[in-house]
TrEMBL record:
The keyword Cell membrane applies. The gene is tatA. It comes from the Bacteria. This is Sec-independent protein translocase protein TatA. It is a single-pass membrane protein. InterPro entries: TatA/B/E, TatA/E. Belongs to the TatA/E family. The Tat system comprises two distinct complexes: a TatABC complex, containing multiple copies of TatA, TatB and TatC subunits, and a separate TatA complex, containing only TatA subunits. Substrates initially bind to the TatABC complex, which probably triggers association of the separate TatA complex to form the active translocon.
Length: 89
């Protein structure tokens, strides 16, 4: 019961054909293949970068350090004397 029989696979393929159409499935498979190829090349490039220190390319430098955000204005709550003065005015 755990394995899928050939009839199950045929039904799955038929559902995919009905949902996506015969023209869109090859395009989707091609896009998936390209994505996997790019992913593999990026992973191998990352592992190569970890093995030896990479030298920065000419014209590229490091990004400047982020500037600190300005301090938020302080909010003071009125004292009891200020509240009573405000009411009498």
């Amino acid at each position: 019961m755990g394995a899928m029989s050939p009839w199950h696979w045929a039904i799955v393929i038929l559902v995919f054909l009905l949902l996506f159409g015969a023209k869109r499935l090859p395009d989707a498979a091609r896009g998936l293949g390209r994505s996997l190829r790019i992913f593999k090349s990026e992973m191998s490039q990352m592992s190569d970068d970890g093995a030896k220190p990479a030298e920065p390319a000419a014209g590229t430098g490091t990004l400047p350090a982020p500037q600190p955000l300005p301090a938020a204005p302080s909010v003071t709550t009125p004292t009891e004397a200020q509240r009573t003065d405000h009411k009498s005015a």
